[in-house]
Design a protein that fits this description.
Blueprint: H1 27-32, H2 35-47, H3 49-63, H4 77-87, H5 89-100, H6 105-117, H7 127-144
Helix pairs in contact: 2-3, 4-6, 4-7, 5-6, 6-7
Amino acid sequence: MLAPPSLSIGVQNSPFIGIQNLHAETHERLQKMTPEQRATLHDNARKRIDNGGREIIELFESSGLPLSSGGMRLSDPVYQRMEEIVWSSEGKKAAVAAPAAGLPALAGVEPLIVADLGDRYHPHNDGTKSAGGIVGELMRFLLTNLPVTRTCL
């Protein structure tokens, strides 16, 4: 197995120590990293935003590379916040209103997510895909819990 490229992410006992060599790193080196290694680099860059981290985050944003191989974890704070937004009263109303206007349910809720999470909501960590899944769960729940009336029969 090849050793991972030596991008600097500040992880103890790792070939990735410090973030001094950022400008020498390239998109190609990021591509060689596993999504999990990129996620660690990104997390550490956020912790060091004023000490070289901003440049690393910009590199990720321009790369379009995923930060996870299996989507967002349910324990991810961003995922949990998206759930809170989607399942809120305002989120439910927005999700239901969008299809009535001919749009996907996510289109109604996404502005609320973007307003709350800002740059923490992006496709690089499967944020948009995860948000779509959460909205899908909401819509299935709402559909299966509609009151049955004679007009529905």
